[in-house]
Amino acid sequence: MPFLLQIRVWGTLKEASASSSALTATKRDPKSNELVKAGLADFETSQGRADIQRALRERFAGAHPADCVQRSLAGLKQVSAVLDAKAPGDAAVFKAWLSTISQKVAEASVEAAFLGFGGQRVSEAEKAKLSDIAKSLGTAA
């Protein structure tokens, strides 16, 4: 595998690990919101994971990478609307939790570094996506 591809794969793995770590930390935190914990509980059952995987396959069927981003942001808008309508008391906490996971993933890997030198923790492209996520969740300032 070419060296630069190995670096990119390593960064992707670090970002996936950051997401998983954020979920685990939430699960272990006794102060976590009950709605957030209920959402996490779906990941813990084989049926819940199967349902999530099926939903993701349906959402991204035939999508190009740019389409995946737009479909993800549209999904966040839907989540935001459902939270606002069905759980207004928990909506802000749940949205903040989603934003925190996004931030941790963005910070997981140094972008544009070479052999550990230079680069930046959160790239301009990642900052733009974090802004898009905040807008989709209705949490943008």
Number of strands: 0
Mean pLDDT across residues: 83
Distance between the termini: 43 Å
- Alpha-beta content class: mainly alpha
β content, as a range? under 5%
The dominant shape is globular
Q: Which runs of at least 5 residues are low in confidence (pLDDT < 50)?
A: 3-7
Mind telling me the C-alpha Rg?
Answer: 16 Å
Helix content: over 70%
Architecture overview:
The chain is an all-alpha fold. Helices cover 74% and strands 0% of the residues. The protein has helices at residues 3-28, 34-41, 46-60, 65-86, 88-107, 124-137. Helix 1 packs antiparallel against helix 5 (88-107), helix 4 runs antiparallel to helix 5 (88-107) and helix 4 (65-86) packs parallel to helix 6 (124-137). Residues 3-7 have low confidence and may be disordered.
Considering the chains and any ligands shown, give keywords for the structure.
74% helix; mainly alpha; 6 helices; 141 residues
Describe this structure in a few short sentences.
By secondary structure, the chain is an all-alpha fold. It has helices spanning 3-28, 34-41, 46-60, 65-86, 88-107, 124-137.
